[in-house]
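[Q] Does anyone have a clean structure-token version of this?
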Amino acid sequence: MKEPLLIFIRSIYIMVKIGIIGGTGLENMEIIESSSDILIKTPYGNPSSALKEGSINGENIVVLNRHGKSHTISPTNVNYRANIWALKEIGCTHILATTAVGSLRQEIKPGDIVFPNQFIDHSKKRDLTFFDKEEVVHTPMAEPFCPRILEALQSTSKELDITYHTNKTVITIEGPRFSTKLESQMFRLWKADIINMSTCPEVTLAREQKMHYAAIALSTDYDSWKEDQEPVSYELIQKTLKTSSSRVTKILFKTVDKMRRWEDVCLS
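[A] Here you go.
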């Protein structure tokens, strides 16, 4: 009788370097230690800001401001390709992206945290891919947000007793204007749950570079669909950010610890 064949499967662990993209109201997060600014030039031009490299609890971290250090770059004019390229070039393997969003659902209240797992791209004027010249690459996008980072973000939020929502869809519009009432109602019919101006093409470009990506969305308003609420305005967004943005930084700080040892099974 033949001896049974024993197959040992060894998990493949990778070195983790986390890039944090700061969105509206979170451009200057003071969460990293011993930081230094690094300027990186890319084939696609300059990124939105210098990369601030430092550490959180001993973990190497790189922070990039999506809209510039003083929020001077509109969503349409963000150089998404340069931003993702620069983070990849400096060695980032994972991206935690923060974003302010409008809520398209009653249950997602201003101040709540949302971890989207799907997107609808309603942008119109952006460079959507790295593969538009020398080669054509069709990148799988069924699960655009890294499910393992989403698990870490959810467990962190539970530990911190922070209200959060999962399995939600974010729709990205071009901006910089906000939605009309009818547009906002239409997006609800499309099964979108939250709305912003920045997730696309950021998430797809990260996937093209085989980087693990997840978004930490902070609900700031009810967009324009809700009749009994004040329609979204920049002033309303800023008001909510002042009272609620600390939740995002707390989640970031604690989630980093959960990502030190990473079994690389998400991306092909």
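[Q] Thanks! Anything notable?
[A] The radius of gyration is 19 Å.
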